[in-house]
Amino acid sequence: MSPDTWSAILDGFERDIALAVSGGIVPLWTPPVDAGPLPAALADRARRVLDAQADAVAILKRARHDAGTQLGAIDAVPSGAASDRPLLLDVRG
Predict the structure, then answer these.
(1) pTM listed for this prediction
(2) What are 63-74's pLDDT values in tens digits?
(3) Phi, psi of 88, rounded to the nearest 5 degrees
């Protein structure tokens, strides 16, 4: 493939990374057919895209962990309807 075609492929990766980190839904990726080798002139850009993907994965894993922590805290609070325990405690007597 030509450098322009590979540049377009890298553009798509960059769009998907930005979309994922912003909370959007990334479309399913299908590899290009007969992409051929990456042109040497685009190797540095491809490395930057790969680094950005790794950063995005770390950001999304952290967000997933934080969301799980928040959901765990919410689940720990008893619901008013299901609880037979008193809502107030009189400590003065």
Answers:
(1) 0.70
(2) 999 999 999 888
(3) -125, 155
